[in-house]
Amino acid sequence: MVDISYYVMQPIITSIKTGNIWHDCLLIMITVFCLTCINKFCASAIDKFQLLISSITWRRLKARYSINIIANPNSVVDTRLQVPEEYLSLLHHLHATDINICSAKSIPTSTNKSKTTNPDPLDELVNYFITSTGKQDLLIAPNIYLHIQKAAQPDPKTSIFAYQTIGLLHYKITLYSYKLTFKQLKGIITEWTVAYRDYIKEKNKGNFYHFTLMPMFGSPNAKVCINFKKHLFTTTKSFDNLFFDGKQMLIDRLNFFLNNPNFYEQRGISHSFGLLFYGSPGCGKTSTIKALASYTKRHLVEIPLSRIRTCDELEQAF
Q1: By three-state DSSP, how is residue 68 classified?
Q2: Are 183 and 82 found together in one domain?
Q3: Residue 32 sits in the same domain as residue 70
Q4: What residue numbers bound the domain in which 283 lies?
Q5: What is the model's pLDDT at position 215?
Q6: Separation of alpha carbons 123 and 121, rounded Å
Q7: pTM beyond 0.85
Q8: Are 99 and 200 in the same domain?
Q9: Do 206 and 191 form a contact (C-beta atoms < 8 A)?
Q10: Cα(107)–Cα(104) distance, rounded to whole angstroms?
Q11: How far apart are CA 245 and CA 281, in angstroms?
């Protein structure tokens, strides 16, 4: 860009001479400062205008798909577990294809969450938001672009639970294409989701987890989000070191349940196996449950009934 001060500096200095050397020096310094600021402002404005012109495309969008990402650092629930699976699938695709992102922000974890000796090995991809793709939208696949926008936060003054909106992180991620139809775009996102699920299964192969239903807040009549706390499940309990009356009968019934799914299907019976444990504290109820989970190689899901307030919440938990 041409420096405008080169053309106007000398005429201005000549016209403002007063004959007083101190006045002239002060006026010249003010003039140079003002012209420098004006020149920098004009250069910045022209650069931004050129960038705006270069970013404008006259192509028409053919398909667009948006994902809302919200995390609340004030929640008692681990905020990383509230991230949509499609977003995690997108992150996995970016990692797998080695596509660089411009800026990211760490997703905070709840300070109220109970600490465990076993770290959560589920997936490191849940630890951050993509907050920017740079000056232009990012081409992440043939004919698919990624756009990041920080969404507006709710006004705490108009919210009943104002404290829950403080520090809320909310981003809107849009995938769009000028050539693909919506069906084609959604199909590719589904492929990324399937690939991400396979990645998680392979990564956690052989691991089992203990899920515990977290307390729910707000009105029981309002729509609530069911959340679980997750721990890596490890135990030394097994039927080899547990002793009680009827143990062999329980093992036989378990083996029949595990090895004969056709028996249930032919009779139109749900392939399920229910047990009710009762007894005084320390009699072995929890130890037997751990042995059952270890024997059947299944996850544990714990639902404290004291945290269930409505039938709808109970249905969602299951």
Answers
A1: strand
A2: yes
A3: no
A4: 210-317
A5: 81
A6: 6
A7: no
A8: yes
A9: no
A10: 9
A11: 17
